[in-house]
Amino acid sequence: MQEHYDVAVVGASGMIGEAIMSILEEREFPVRNIYPLGSKRSAGTTLMFRDEPVQIGLLSEFDFSKVQYGLFSAGASVSDVFAPQAAARGCTVIDNTSRFRYDPDIPLVIPEVNGEALHDHSHLIANPNCSTIQMIVALKPIYDAVGIERINVCTYQSVSGAGRSAVNELANQSAALLNGRDAEISVAPRQIAFNAIPHIDVFQDNGYTKEEMKMVWETRKILNDESIRVNPTTVRIPVFFGHSEAVHIETRHKLRAAEARELLRAAKGITVIDDPGELQYPTAVTDAANRDDVFVGRIREDISHELGLNMWIVSDNVRKGGALNSVQIAEYLVYGES
Amino acid sequence: MQEHYDVAVVGASGMIGEAIMSILEEREFPVRNIYPLGSKRSAGTTLMFRDEPVQIGLLSEFDFSKVQYGLFSAGASVSDVFAPQAAARGCTVIDNTSRFRYDPDIPLVIPEVNGEALHDHSHLIANPNCSTIQMIVALKPIYDAVGIERINVCTYQSVSGAGRSAVNELANQSAALLNGRDAEISVAPRQIAFNAIPHIDVFQDNGYTKEEMKMVWETRKILNDESIRVNPTTVRIPVFFGHSEAVHIETRHKLRAAEARELLRAAKGITVIDDPGELQYPTAVTDAANRDDVFVGRIREDISHELGLNMWIVSDNVRKGGALNSVQIAEYLVYGES
């Protein structure tokens, strides 16, 4: 008989938290009791889980010894305080913030890429950043086949990566501007409606943003390869859901576009949409939003580099980039390698 | 006394044509008579030039021997027929379509970059593509100082690059979606509102789009350097005016970010907005739209390549990317090197 588990969802009223609840349900994760948790602001709110109402509890008063799994997505400062407390009480924390990602003792996991890193953990597991996850899912089959020396990546990231308030901001600004009114700026650092902003998270001393450095640090940690060189420019654009990425890689050995296409077609969690003759390629709105897979198209040999290969990688940043990957980590822990 | 010239503007009712008329006026180009021209659809419409009404004439009936300059921006098929006819009648054609750009006998010119190419022409001069112009204006000082081996570029292109109907489409789709209605698709190959489309112009046999190959071919022709390697991914995003580009270059000799910043600050036609500490960088909406300069920020040394340098280049694609550059070509011909 399938064992069942008690699960806490921290940040249940947020976009990722909400998606975690619905993904646990739709993938029939063996939940016995679910405990959505939040701050004073959201505690007391009623959510639905498996057609039953369930109230958001107060995180600061919750006893984590009651649950075996805690899925955290309420921000790094919340995880900083409560994730170690939960882990100390025997709850396995799957943390979807940047708080523990760069701690060498804490596994950073995309189950289909480095699930084996889950074999050794101390009740704390980190979920990578959304923009890293979709890139690495798509690159792993190529990395395994021919090696990757260097990655130039430019992102086209949706506002949902910055949470529900950023989604509302894009809608409100767009409506205001279309009606001849001024755009009010609150979440994004500039007007995001009808604009492109090359600034996500804080600037680092080397001139890159932290969002860019996440892609550098996390790629190396997940692939367990300090030699891989990554050069990102990350950009927020006026899209609600789904991150797109233009990825230009340099492999260790030659890989033809047709071979790359076949490798990716055979890989789990990837859908190749790539037929220029039929004008087929993935986009955020038409393919990725609300879907689980990472979508890859525009695969072509780089005319500027003998070992270069280009592609266009699109995925739902709330699902595979966050909630789904967290639930897949829990599934891996429960079922073993799927 | 300043000589004056008779000027025809072909495609005067289009977005670039309209901008050409107003730029001729605001820069006080020495126009004697202006002849806005168009198809049957637009002929007879009245425009204003220097506070005087002027009617759009019928292109097919116009006698080009009446003018010394013809600025064409009505599409490649129109230029194909009428530009050689005009040139044969002694009119110097400045063509803002792709029709003649790759003809080795026809100069392809950004005046501040390769104005000297104008010293030898047979009444036909090509204006480069918008996405190439802003990139090359920003890269030329670096190219001259240390050489450039390779360019990885990803574009974030506004819909105005596809003309007025594409601007209307973005507005209409955005309004429809914000009101819960479906988006009607007519100009862009997918829904453009709240989406990113990695497909501009037609696909080529090598898997690149023609928009991407324009950046390859034109960079080489303008810099007169067949050795420079260019790897573009060009993407349309829901921005009305202003193209942005994430440009990752590999130079021949080492150039520090601070040195690049100084080179660009000293260059004509470039405004550097680059202070991460003060969160300063250019964006399409806040800086480029309706301005003449090419704006550069996010200048940083590439952590993945010893000779790498990254930057973010933004410009108004209708002005410097099209109308302004065409007028600047005419100015160069009239005044010589400015």
Instruction: Please tell me how large the radius of gyration of chain A is.
Output: 20 Å
Number of strands of chain A: 14
Largest interface: A-B, 57 and 57 residues
Q: State the low-pLDDT regions of chain A, or none.
A: none
CATH architecture annotation name of the largest domain in chain A: 2-Layer Sandwich
Question: How far is the first residue's CA from the last residue's CA of chain A?
Answer: 18 Å
How large a portion of the residues of chain A is in β-strands, by DSSP E? 15-25%
| Strand numbers in spatial order across the main sheet of chain A | 5-2-1-6-7-8
Query: What is the approximate shape of chain A?
Result: globular
CATH class of the largest domain in chain A: Alpha Beta
Task: Write out the CATH superfamily name of the largest domain in chain A.
Answer: Dihydrodipicolinate Reductase, domain 2
The succession of helices and strands of chain A, N to C, reads EHEEEEEHEHEHEHHEEHEHEEH
CATH topology of the largest domain in chain A: Dihydrodipicolinate Reductase, domain 2
User: Helical percent range of chain A?
Assistant: 25-40%
Count of domain modules of chain A: 2
Overall mean pLDDT score of chain A? 97
Number of helices of chain A: 9
Helix-strand category of chain A: alpha/beta
